[in-house]
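note to self: dont lose this again. the chain is below, predicted strucutre after it. 450 aa total, dont forget to put it in the shared folder this time
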Amino acid sequence: MDLLMPTRSDLWFLPLGGTGEIGMNLNLYGHDGEWLMVDCGVSFNEPLDENSVRTHELVCADPDFITQQRHRLAGIVITHAHEDHVGALPFLWRRFQVPVYTTPFTAEILRRKLAQVGLLEDVEIHELPLASRFKVGVFDLQWITLTHSIPEPSGLMIETPAGNVFHTGDWKIDHSPVIGERFSPAVLTTLRKRDVTAMVCDSTNALKTGHSVSEFDCYKALLEVIKDESGRVVVGCFSSNIARLVSLARVAKETGRYLALLGRSLQNMVSAARASGYWPDDLPVVDATHLGYLPADEVLAVATGSQGEPRAMLNRLARDDCFDLSLDKGDLVLFSAMIIPGNEAEIERLVKSFKAQGIRTLQKHETELPIHVSGHPYEEELAAMYDWVRPQVAIPTHGEAAHMSANARIAKDAHVPRQLTGLNGDLFTIAPEVGVRKRAVKAKRIALAR
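---
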């Protein structure tokens, strides 16, 4: 394999995962003989290639390219704590054995993951506050605080003598984010003065016109639905969406209900939020074992399994196999989560199972109320970001081909001079010349064992 060593005049971007797909992000930046890894994530229930029908529970990008030259890997930076950005690191770290740099909340989540695989004492974690400037090898870095559906989402400003990159990570413009600071363009407008050569940008919602909906509007919608319910309410949502969980705790308090968590990942996330100062002290969470003793109109439970996962708590509730809670006819199961493409059949089976028992369900597409909102930018937000930062080159990532093509069009309309699109394994040369070397590295996937 060609090991592609960057020289002092080179600045390269090499995605091994997350470009041409949504999930399993693993990005490399190369300069002056060194590489910087940004994010190391997983995807769930995926095949290893497009010709395979067999799926694997945990899948990540094949790191073989960088493993073969790990002496050139200066460090790993994790932008936030979503599984598609951090989930593979505990399984792959032994192949790299380099320090990890991240923010306090993500560090808390990462330490818990490392403890599960016996690596907590081995991994050198640099916990850096929001907006910190720091250096990793030949790369000068700074967190750029944004808003997303998890605490402490941070873009990354990468500066080198050859050129500068703004790597957005996952983001949206949310002026009422429920937790964390509201989105502020002030720091972004200062980046244009720092001569951003390229902006590597989230494309997930580039096909959607307008502006994404605030997390606070989702809270109001959930309150509107739940306040008039007379039976038990169970909400399925992603465990990492701490803002959504805080909103549901507030809804419980305002409607005279008790909030309980069904599923270890939910319990772990709320515990991490408490440890990091993101869970309000005035919002109690009751032990799930208490649910069976409460009147129906005092129950508000949050459950794992919004994607129809067979072993998660929503499916167990549908089978009446949940030790702590049983649902009756007339109770409501509310899905406050997107349908990840590929999971439609599993979710539909789950919904049919509830309905067969007279248990009502409510999904996002069945109501005009925003009972779920996305954590990624729509077209107007992308255009605004390009106008604030004013990079010389736009490199869409974190999306399938259609999403990245739409992102590139938005960048062009925003007067970004160059747009580069490609796939995992393509080498994006940012300096000294701008271009894309297709299939510079063979991009593959590997399965991970829990």
